[in-house]
Amino acid sequence: MHGSDEVIAALFILAGSIIVFVSAIGIIRLPDVYTRSHAASKSSTLGVLSTLVGTLLYFLISEGYFSIRLIMGIFFVFLTAPVAAHLIARSAYRNGVPLTEKSIEDELKKYYFENELSKK
Prior knowledge:
By secondary structure, the chain is an all-alpha fold. It has 5 helices and no strands. About 80% of the residues lie in helices and about 0% in strands. The radius of gyration is 20 Å and the shape is elongated.
């Protein structure tokens, strides 16, 4: 085991931790549910994936142990987090949760609320 191998794994874990930290700040600071879901899904997914890849590399390099559990964790986080965030944002939009006042245009309004717009 070389020290540089551990450093590579540690850099992946550190990068993942920093990305998750920035994602947490985004969840706190962003103005509405739509931008918060973007921060929660995209960057935290990348952060968790980086952390899991770093852990996988560490165990693979240091102990020669290939963990299928880590591979499955990477797969399920990569698959489920963006889908869940999309469904939450879509549900919020359909239930009429308002966009932030800083939003310039609502392109989905004509598709989701055709009946209400035609009545006016």
